[in-house]
Protein 1
Amino acid sequence: MKLWLIPVLVVTGWLVGCAASPAVLEPTLTPIAVATLPPTATPTEPLQATLAPSPPVPTSLLPSPEPTLTPTQTSTPTPTPTPTPEPDWLNSVGRTDQQVMYVGNLAAPVRLIDFSDFM
């Protein structure tokens, strides 16, 4: 008989024995503290919102409008040269003179050489 069979049977029996009697926990109800406000008196008459008319504003106190400024002659702005867009090096692929495949900038200061086969 195999020696590993005895510990496996013991552990299996232990796990089955523990799982046979699940402990069912019943939730216990606890009282919840609720803040209560003192009772307020209910109004016997409905509230009506009334707006008082605003007093008229004397026109002598209003500031007089200043005259509009006339536009001055401005020089035409000189157009700025459009910057050259940065090349997308992740999509720059090709072959060197030695027929080696490359991705990116061949003149980059750091070069990663990957020896891989995708067959």
Note: The two ends are 48 Å apart (CA to CA).
Protein 2
Amino acid sequence: MKRFIFITVLLHFSFFAFTQNKYGVYVFVAEKCPISIYMAKPLQEAFQKYGNEVDFYTVFPMRNSTNETAQKFLEKYHLTDFKIKLDNYQGFSKKLGATITPEVIVLDAQGEVAFRGRISNAYRAPGKMKHGVRKNELVEVLQKLTNGESIEQPWSPAVGCYITFHN
């Protein structure tokens, strides 16, 4: 039992202790998920607008992700300002309830979920892009949060590739 408690505390510390700002944006991505790749531009936009006020992390929840593959992904899609969090054992993903890549979860400084959902409304379903004007919902969320407003539920669910969980 003591070992389990230690691992839980270590997991909590390793992901939450590095948030320097009031909010941490955790984006769950997979290197080979087409929608994760497509969302790079809206993520860049969110970082450009809020990178000084909010901490940005990319969480790689797939077992085969490594520091090397994660770094290559960030470099290729111009997301190198995001911190890398490998979650090969998927404890963090399970703890936060992430099930899709890309999925964004915004945590406040106490580790409470302030928002969970999609990055933009560009996809209605996997393989089905929305026609017309698209909006960067993450930017809207961060604007409200940094202005002291809360985000009303229900939040728009993420659309993308399912995270394959291993026991």
Note: Residues 106 and 154 are 15 Å apart (CA to CA).
